[in-house]
Amino acid sequence: MKTLSKFVSMLFVLFSIILSSSTSVLAAEYDSEAVYDMNIGGTQNFVLEDSKGKEIYITILENSLQTRALENKSYSISLTAPLSWTAGYNVVIRNNLISSVNSPHYKCYTGKISSAALKKDSSKQATLRFTHTVLGISTRGGVRTNIADNKLKVSRL
C-alpha cells in the first residue's frame, strides 16, 4: 500500500512539473514581491503569484524581543511554496540598513533541499539560496529581502 501511495505521489509531482513548464516564458516578465511597512510593524502576511502563476505565501514577523525604535529591530522572514518548500531567516535592521542575517531555516515537502547558503549581499539586500531537487530534476531557489524607505521587500528567487 505504501508503494502505491508513493507511486501516486510521484505521478502527481511529475504531472505538476510538466504542467508548470508550459508557463516558464513568464519568468522574465513577472516580478512579485511582498512589501512590509516597518512603520506599521507586527506580523504581515502576503499571498502572491510567482513567475509560474502559482501562489506563494510570505510572512514577515517583527520579533518582539527588540526595542520599538525603528533603528534597531529584528524580523523573521518566511516564504512558502505550497507542496514544495518553506524557507526563511532572520534579518536585523539598524538605521534603515541590514545589519546582519541569521538563523536560516528550510523545510522540504517534496524532494530535497541542498547547498543552502544565507548571505548578506549588501547593507540593502540579503539572500537565502539553495538547490531544490525533485525526481532528479534540480532547480535553484531562494528568498531575497531588500530594504528601502522603511520597507522590507521580500521575493522568491
TrEMBL record:
Entry superkingdom: Bacteria
Domain DUF5626: 37-154
InterPro entries linked: DUF5626
Keywords of the record: Signal
Keyword Cytoplasm (UniProt): no
Residues of the signal peptide: 1-27
Protein name: DUF5626 domain-containing protein
